[in-house]
Amino acid sequence: MSIQLDSHTGVAGAVHAQAERDTQDALSLEVTLCGVRFRNPIVLASGILGLSEEIFARLARSGIGGITTKSCSLQPRVGWHNPTIVSWGHGLINAVGLSNPGVEVMVEEIRAARRHLQPLGVPIIASIFATTIYDFGTLARYVSEAEPDLIEVNISCPNLDAQHEEMFSSNAYVSGQVTRAVKRNARCPVVVKLSPNVDNIVTIAREVANNGADAICAINSLGPGMVLDIESAKPVLANRTGGVSGPAIRPIAVRCVYDICRALRGMGVQVIGTGGVTDARDAIEMILAGATCVGVGSAVHARGLGVFAEMTAGIADYMRRHGYRSLDEFRGRAL
Ligand SMILES: Cc1cc2nc3c(=O)[nH]c(=O)nc-3n(C[C@H](O)[C@H](O)[C@H](O)COP(=O)(O)O)c2cc1C
Fold first, then answer.
1. Positive or negative torsion for Cα 148, 182, 268, 44
2. The domain that contains 77 carries what CATH number?
3. Which residue has a Cα nearest atom 23 of ligand 1?
4. For 56-107, what is each residue's pLDDT tens digit?
5. CA of 243 to the centre of ligand 1 (A)
6. Is the peptide bond before 224 cis (omega within 30 degrees of 0)?
7. Is residue 57 part of a domain?
8. Residues with beta carbon inside 6 Å of ligand 1?
9. Residue 4 falls inside a structural domain
């Protein structure tokens, strides 16, 4: 599947002009997540785009608030065979297998991303993935060398190989221990990314918060799921099963964000609401449920980088209609 990168450049130009008018109206989309300032709440979700000079330039122009890198491991990982990402009508199903070049290369890529994006006020969230608690700690130390603004801890990938019997995030105690190991080694705030595939996401969220998580990202993709090609009678993915994302999972993501924000009120833990967000309306829904930032993944596959500018324009429009001048005025209103 190819990604349309600049399909809405005209929209982005109009949105920048509107952003200037918004500044004059004293309307601000700025948010602060764990002490880090974002020019707006819309963040690229992990795993959606690789880091390259071309992509940095396009991201910088896209009006995005922040970016999350693809999850990196200590050693390079090849990942699964193609097809790894398939659009099935109401979202995506993917089994990429966490392919990545390993932390050494990733540190250089994050440094390059910082050079391009930090001068524009676009923070970088470095995502890490490991197979042991100890390795999570080691990775946090290595990746900190690149000085990302935040580290996101992926304990919730649904595409596990035979070595991994269950996701870390299925178990509250283990999730807490991973969080503790990362916090001990990280030199920036830590976001822990949770899975919806658990009995009670609040139990896991509370445990990671009690072990030092500064923020929670909810949710990773749902599943694993399966889509069959009825002509060949075979699964569409080479790995047979994969994580389900996109519009179909949004109500589950909103419920998770709502429950976590309600349960953890007063603990000072912020939330990145991710899952099925496709337009401004969906992003506003996440903010009403209590999210500080909003992660966008599958929508970039479907609609290109223009979605970011469209979302911020739509949020600003909503704020104007309701007389809000900052996101603080309506964040968590549904709670
Ligand atoms: C192709 C693809 C690759 C992904 N890779 C990662 C990854 O490396 N690390 C991670 O934490 N999440 C990964 N995710 C999950 C997304 O970051 C996000 O949590 C999920 O897709 C739900 O958001 P969406 O509905 O906006 O896509 C991936 C999702 C997709 C579709």
1. positive
2. 3.20.20.70
3. 275
4. 888 888 999 999 999 999 999 888 889 999 999 999 999 988 889 999 999 9
5. 8
6. yes
7. yes
8. 45-48, 70-71, 85, 92, 94, 96, 98, 127, 154, 193, 220-221, 245-246, 249, 274-277, 296-299
9. no
Given a contact cutoff of 8 angstroms between Cβ atoms, the answer to whether 331 and 36 are in contact is: no
Print burial letters for 3-17: b (CB count within 10 Å at least 16), e (below 16).
eebeebbebbeebee
Coil/strand/helix, residue 128? strand
Domain assignment of residue 131, yes or no: yes
Share of the chain above pLDDT 90, in %: 80
**Residue that the structure tokens 């709502």 belong to:** 258
Residue with the nearest Cα to atom 29 of ligand 1?
Answer: 47
Please state the domain count of the chain: 1
Among residues 157, 188, 256, 293, the one annotated as catalytic is: 157
Domain that holds residue 172: 9-329
- Torsion, Cα 154 160 162 167, to 10 degrees, reads 50
Global pTM exceeds 0.70: yes
What is the C-alpha separation between 55 and 276, in angstroms, rounded? 22
- Is residue 60 assigned to a domain? yes
How many other C-beta atoms are found inside a 10 Å radius of the C-beta of residue 159?
22
Q: What are the start-end ranges of the E strands in 260-317?
A: 270-274, 293-296
| Arithmetic mean of pLDDT, 153-171 | 77
